[in-house]
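SAMPLE LOG
Freezer: B-3
Tube label: C17
Construct: single chain, 299 aa
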Amino acid sequence: MGLLTAIVLGSAAGGAFPQWNCRCAVCELAWRGDSRVQARTQASIAVSSGNGRWTLLNASPDLGQQIRATPTLHPRDGLRGSPIDAVVLTGGEIDQITGLLSLRESTPFTLYATPSSHAAVAANAMFSAMGTMTRRAVSPGERFMLAGDIEASLFMVPGKVPLYLEGDAPELGAETAANVGIDLSHGGKRLIFVPGAAAVSASMRERFATADVILFDGTLFTDDEMQRSGTGVKTGRRMGHMPVDGEGGALQALDGLTARRIFVHINNTNPMLIDGSPERIKAEAAGWRVAHDGMEIVL
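STRUCTURE (predicted):
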Protein backbone atom coordinates (compact mmCIF):
# COMPACT_ATOMS: atom_id res chain seq x y z
CA MET A 1 0.00 0.00 0.00
CA GLY A 2 1.57 3.26 -1.15
CA LEU A 3 1.56 6.61 0.58
CA LEU A 4 -1.11 9.20 -0.13
CA THR A 5 0.49 11.79 -2.39
CA ALA A 6 -0.91 15.11 -3.58
CA ILE A 7 0.56 17.32 -6.30
CA VAL A 8 -0.57 20.94 -6.50
CA LEU A 9 -1.21 21.33 -10.22
CA GLY A 10 -2.37 24.91 -9.80
CA SER A 11 -2.43 27.18 -6.75
CA ALA A 12 -3.98 30.44 -7.96
CA ALA A 13 -7.57 31.68 -7.93
CA GLY A 14 -9.58 32.34 -11.10
CA GLY A 15 -7.54 34.26 -13.65
CA ALA A 16 -4.24 32.68 -12.50
CA PHE A 17 -1.12 34.69 -11.62
CA PRO A 18 -0.22 37.02 -13.12
CA GLN A 19 -3.75 37.56 -14.35
CA TRP A 20 -3.73 38.07 -18.11
CA ASN A 21 -5.21 41.60 -17.99
CA CYS A 22 -3.93 42.89 -14.65
CA ARG A 23 -1.12 45.18 -13.56
CA CYS A 24 -2.00 45.40 -9.87
CA ALA A 25 0.97 45.82 -7.53
CA VAL A 26 1.50 42.06 -7.23
CA CYS A 27 0.98 41.22 -10.91
CA GLU A 28 3.31 44.07 -11.84
CA LEU A 29 6.16 42.23 -10.10
CA ALA A 30 5.46 39.12 -12.18
CA TRP A 31 5.30 41.01 -15.47
CA ARG A 32 8.66 42.59 -14.60
CA GLY A 33 10.19 39.18 -13.85
CA ASP A 34 10.78 39.87 -10.15
CA SER A 35 12.34 36.78 -8.56
CA ARG A 36 10.21 37.17 -5.42
CA VAL A 37 7.11 35.92 -7.24
CA GLN A 38 6.43 32.91 -9.42
CA ALA A 39 3.67 32.32 -11.93
CA ARG A 40 0.77 30.14 -10.85
CA THR A 41 -2.05 28.45 -12.74
CA GLN A 42 -5.62 28.07 -11.51
CA ALA A 43 -6.29 25.79 -8.56
CA SER A 44 -6.40 22.02 -9.05
CA ILE A 45 -4.86 19.10 -7.15
CA ALA A 46 -3.91 15.57 -8.22
CA VAL A 47 -3.90 12.74 -5.65
CA SER A 48 -2.74 9.12 -5.77
CA SER A 49 -1.80 6.28 -3.44
CA GLY A 50 1.11 5.17 -5.61
CA ASN A 51 -0.69 2.71 -7.89
CA GLY A 52 -0.23 4.81 -11.00
CA ARG A 53 -3.83 6.04 -11.05
CA TRP A 54 -4.59 9.66 -10.23
CA THR A 55 -7.68 11.60 -9.17
CA LEU A 56 -8.02 15.31 -9.88
CA LEU A 57 -9.64 17.63 -7.35
CA ASN A 58 -11.33 20.20 -9.59
CA ALA A 59 -10.54 20.69 -13.26
CA SER A 60 -9.21 24.19 -13.80
CA PRO A 61 -9.19 26.00 -17.16
CA ASP A 62 -5.39 25.49 -17.15
CA LEU A 63 -5.65 21.70 -16.88
CA GLY A 64 -4.04 20.93 -20.25
CA GLN A 65 -1.02 23.04 -19.33
CA GLN A 66 -0.90 21.45 -15.88
CA ILE A 67 -0.93 17.91 -17.29
CA ARG A 68 1.91 18.73 -19.66
CA ALA A 69 3.93 20.15 -16.75
CA THR A 70 3.38 17.05 -14.57
CA PRO A 71 5.17 13.89 -15.84
CA THR A 72 3.14 11.54 -13.62
CA LEU A 73 0.01 12.57 -15.54
CA HIS A 74 1.47 11.93 -19.00
CA PRO A 75 0.05 9.05 -21.10
CA ARG A 76 2.23 5.96 -20.78
CA ASP A 77 1.02 2.70 -22.34
CA GLY A 78 -0.63 2.10 -25.68
CA LEU A 79 -1.65 4.57 -28.35
CA ARG A 80 -4.19 6.43 -26.18
CA GLY A 81 -4.75 6.50 -22.43
CA SER A 82 -4.19 8.46 -19.26
CA PRO A 83 -3.34 7.79 -15.61
CA ILE A 84 -6.22 10.17 -14.71
CA ASP A 85 -8.96 7.93 -13.34
CA ALA A 86 -11.42 10.45 -11.90
CA VAL A 87 -12.23 14.08 -11.15
CA VAL A 88 -13.91 15.23 -7.93
CA LEU A 89 -15.53 18.68 -7.88
CA THR A 90 -15.96 21.06 -4.96
CA GLY A 91 -18.50 23.09 -6.96
CA GLY A 92 -19.57 24.24 -10.37
CA GLU A 93 -17.61 27.49 -10.69
CA ILE A 94 -16.02 28.25 -14.05
CA ASP A 95 -12.51 27.75 -12.67
CA GLN A 96 -13.52 24.35 -11.20
CA ILE A 97 -15.16 22.72 -14.24
CA THR A 98 -13.82 24.26 -17.46
CA GLY A 99 -10.82 21.92 -17.54
CA LEU A 100 -13.16 18.98 -18.06
CA LEU A 101 -13.25 20.02 -21.71
CA SER A 102 -9.52 19.24 -21.89
CA LEU A 103 -10.38 15.60 -21.09
CA ARG A 104 -12.84 15.04 -23.95
CA GLU A 105 -10.61 12.99 -26.30
CA SER A 106 -12.19 9.56 -25.77
CA THR A 107 -10.37 8.34 -22.65
CA PRO A 108 -12.86 7.31 -19.95
CA PHE A 109 -12.89 8.76 -16.44
CA THR A 110 -15.46 9.28 -13.67
CA LEU A 111 -16.74 12.65 -12.52
CA TYR A 112 -17.78 12.75 -8.85
CA ALA A 113 -19.80 15.75 -7.72
CA THR A 114 -22.89 16.71 -5.77
CA PRO A 115 -26.21 16.64 -7.67
CA SER A 116 -26.23 20.45 -7.85
CA SER A 117 -22.74 20.59 -9.35
CA HIS A 118 -23.64 17.85 -11.84
CA ALA A 119 -26.68 19.91 -12.79
CA ALA A 120 -24.50 22.97 -13.42
CA VAL A 121 -22.29 20.92 -15.74
CA ALA A 122 -25.21 19.24 -17.51
CA ALA A 123 -26.93 22.59 -18.15
CA ASN A 124 -24.09 23.66 -20.45
CA ALA A 125 -24.36 22.05 -23.87
CA MET A 126 -20.58 22.08 -24.37
CA PHE A 127 -20.21 19.29 -21.82
CA SER A 128 -22.35 17.02 -23.96
CA ALA A 129 -19.09 16.35 -25.82
CA MET A 130 -17.88 14.41 -22.77
CA GLY A 131 -19.10 11.06 -24.10
CA THR A 132 -16.62 8.93 -22.14
CA MET A 133 -17.17 10.74 -18.83
CA THR A 134 -19.19 8.70 -16.33
CA ARG A 135 -21.16 11.02 -14.05
CA ARG A 136 -21.62 9.88 -10.47
CA ALA A 137 -23.61 11.99 -8.04
CA VAL A 138 -22.40 11.99 -4.44
CA SER A 139 -24.26 13.61 -1.57
CA PRO A 140 -22.39 15.36 1.27
CA GLY A 141 -21.53 12.79 3.93
CA GLU A 142 -21.63 9.84 1.54
CA ARG A 143 -18.40 7.84 1.41
CA PHE A 144 -17.04 6.63 -1.91
CA MET A 145 -13.84 4.96 -3.07
CA LEU A 146 -11.31 6.37 -5.50
CA ALA A 147 -8.54 4.53 -7.34
CA GLY A 148 -5.85 3.14 -5.04
CA ASP A 149 -8.21 2.52 -2.11
CA ILE A 150 -8.52 6.20 -1.28
CA GLU A 151 -11.70 6.77 0.71
CA ALA A 152 -13.40 10.07 -0.03
CA SER A 153 -16.33 12.09 1.22
CA LEU A 154 -17.72 15.55 0.55
CA PHE A 155 -18.84 17.97 3.25
CA MET A 156 -20.74 21.23 3.03
CA VAL A 157 -18.77 24.46 3.41
CA PRO A 158 -20.26 27.94 3.92
CA GLY A 159 -20.26 29.65 0.53
CA LYS A 160 -22.54 30.42 -2.39
CA VAL A 161 -23.67 29.13 -5.77
CA PRO A 162 -21.41 29.71 -8.82
CA LEU A 163 -21.19 33.32 -10.04
CA TYR A 164 -23.11 32.62 -13.26
CA LEU A 165 -26.03 31.20 -11.20
CA GLU A 166 -26.18 33.93 -8.56
CA GLY A 167 -29.14 36.02 -9.68
CA ASP A 168 -29.90 39.40 -8.14
CA ALA A 169 -29.87 38.41 -4.46
CA PRO A 170 -27.52 35.47 -3.87
CA GLU A 171 -27.54 33.76 -0.50
CA LEU A 172 -24.09 34.24 1.03
CA GLY A 173 -22.47 31.95 3.57
CA ALA A 174 -25.08 29.22 3.27
CA GLU A 175 -24.09 25.60 3.81
CA THR A 176 -25.42 23.77 0.74
CA ALA A 177 -24.24 21.10 -1.67
CA ALA A 178 -23.27 23.86 -4.13
CA ASN A 179 -19.97 24.41 -2.27
CA VAL A 180 -18.19 21.50 -0.61
CA GLY A 181 -14.84 20.37 0.72
CA ILE A 182 -13.20 17.04 -0.06
CA ASP A 183 -11.98 14.73 2.73
CA LEU A 184 -9.58 11.96 1.61
CA SER A 185 -8.13 9.15 3.70
CA HIS A 186 -5.68 6.35 2.97
CA GLY A 187 -3.38 4.30 5.18
CA GLY A 188 -4.51 6.09 8.32
CA LYS A 189 -3.73 9.57 6.89
CA ARG A 190 -6.20 12.29 5.94
CA LEU A 191 -6.02 15.21 3.53
CA ILE A 192 -8.72 17.88 3.26
CA PHE A 193 -9.18 20.25 0.31
CA VAL A 194 -11.28 23.41 0.72
CA PRO A 195 -10.51 25.96 -2.02
CA GLY A 196 -13.50 28.15 -1.22
CA ALA A 197 -14.94 28.99 2.21
CA ALA A 198 -16.97 31.96 3.40
CA ALA A 199 -16.43 30.88 7.02
CA VAL A 200 -15.30 27.97 9.17
CA SER A 201 -18.20 26.26 10.89
CA ALA A 202 -17.93 24.36 14.18
CA SER A 203 -18.30 21.05 12.32
CA MET A 204 -15.50 22.00 9.93
CA ARG A 205 -13.20 22.91 12.80
CA GLU A 206 -13.97 19.54 14.41
CA ARG A 207 -13.19 17.75 11.15
CA PHE A 208 -9.96 19.66 10.65
CA ALA A 209 -8.77 18.78 14.17
CA THR A 210 -8.06 15.17 13.12
CA ALA A 211 -6.64 15.84 9.65
CA ASP A 212 -2.97 15.52 8.68
CA VAL A 213 -2.97 18.09 5.85
CA ILE A 214 -5.41 20.91 5.08
CA LEU A 215 -5.33 22.76 1.74
CA PHE A 216 -7.48 25.81 2.43
CA ASP A 217 -8.89 28.92 0.79
CA GLY A 218 -6.26 31.67 0.65
CA THR A 219 -7.98 33.84 -1.95
CA LEU A 220 -7.55 37.28 -0.38
CA PHE A 221 -5.32 38.37 2.48
CA THR A 222 -7.80 41.03 3.64
CA ASP A 223 -11.53 41.19 2.99
CA ASP A 224 -11.35 44.56 1.19
CA GLU A 225 -8.20 43.73 -0.78
CA MET A 226 -9.74 44.07 -4.25
CA GLN A 227 -11.49 47.30 -3.33
CA ARG A 228 -8.28 48.84 -1.98
CA SER A 229 -6.26 47.69 -4.98
CA GLY A 230 -8.82 49.09 -7.41
CA THR A 231 -9.30 45.72 -9.10
CA GLY A 232 -12.90 45.08 -8.01
CA VAL A 233 -15.88 46.34 -6.06
CA LYS A 234 -16.72 43.19 -4.07
CA THR A 235 -15.31 42.12 -0.74
CA GLY A 236 -13.91 38.64 -0.34
CA ARG A 237 -16.88 37.52 1.71
CA ARG A 238 -19.27 38.81 -0.97
CA MET A 239 -17.44 36.48 -3.37
CA GLY A 240 -17.75 33.56 -0.93
CA HIS A 241 -14.17 33.68 0.37
CA MET A 242 -13.21 34.49 3.94
CA PRO A 243 -9.96 36.48 4.20
CA VAL A 244 -6.68 35.10 5.43
CA ASP A 245 -6.17 37.88 8.00
CA GLY A 246 -8.42 39.93 10.23
CA GLU A 247 -11.36 39.16 12.49
CA GLY A 248 -12.82 35.80 11.55
CA GLY A 249 -10.10 35.18 8.98
CA ALA A 250 -8.42 31.85 8.35
CA LEU A 251 -5.38 32.59 10.52
CA GLN A 252 -7.69 33.13 13.46
CA ALA A 253 -10.31 30.48 12.67
CA LEU A 254 -7.79 27.67 12.15
CA ASP A 255 -5.27 28.64 14.80
CA GLY A 256 -4.00 25.82 17.01
CA LEU A 257 -4.57 22.94 14.60
CA THR A 258 -1.83 20.32 14.41
CA ALA A 259 -2.34 19.56 10.70
CA ARG A 260 0.00 20.85 8.04
CA ARG A 261 -1.88 23.90 6.74
CA ILE A 262 -1.39 25.17 3.20
CA PHE A 263 -3.08 28.11 1.49
CA VAL A 264 -4.31 27.44 -2.03
CA HIS A 265 -6.60 29.28 -4.51
CA ILE A 266 -4.65 32.52 -4.03
CA ASN A 267 -5.84 35.61 -5.90
CA ASN A 268 -3.45 37.60 -8.07
CA THR A 269 -3.88 40.66 -5.79
CA ASN A 270 -2.82 38.79 -2.64
CA PRO A 271 0.57 40.08 -1.38
CA MET A 272 1.09 36.69 0.28
CA LEU A 273 2.30 35.61 -3.19
CA ILE A 274 5.45 37.67 -2.68
CA ASP A 275 8.36 35.87 -1.02
CA GLY A 276 9.43 37.82 2.06
CA SER A 277 6.41 40.14 2.13
CA PRO A 278 4.99 41.04 5.55
CA GLU A 279 1.86 39.07 4.65
CA ARG A 280 3.84 35.94 3.71
CA ILE A 281 5.90 36.25 6.89
CA LYS A 282 2.74 36.59 9.01
CA ALA A 283 1.17 33.50 7.44
CA GLU A 284 4.32 31.43 7.86
CA ALA A 285 4.77 32.58 11.45
CA ALA A 286 1.27 31.24 12.13
CA GLY A 287 2.30 27.82 10.81
CA TRP A 288 1.01 28.08 7.25
CA ARG A 289 2.66 27.46 3.88
CA VAL A 290 1.66 29.11 0.63
CA ALA A 291 1.08 26.59 -2.16
CA HIS A 292 2.91 26.84 -5.47
CA ASP A 293 2.45 24.92 -8.68
CA GLY A 294 4.28 21.61 -8.54
CA MET A 295 4.29 21.40 -4.74
CA GLU A 296 4.26 17.74 -3.69
CA ILE A 297 2.71 16.64 -0.40
CA VAL A 298 3.33 13.10 0.87
CA LEU A 299 1.44 11.70 3.86
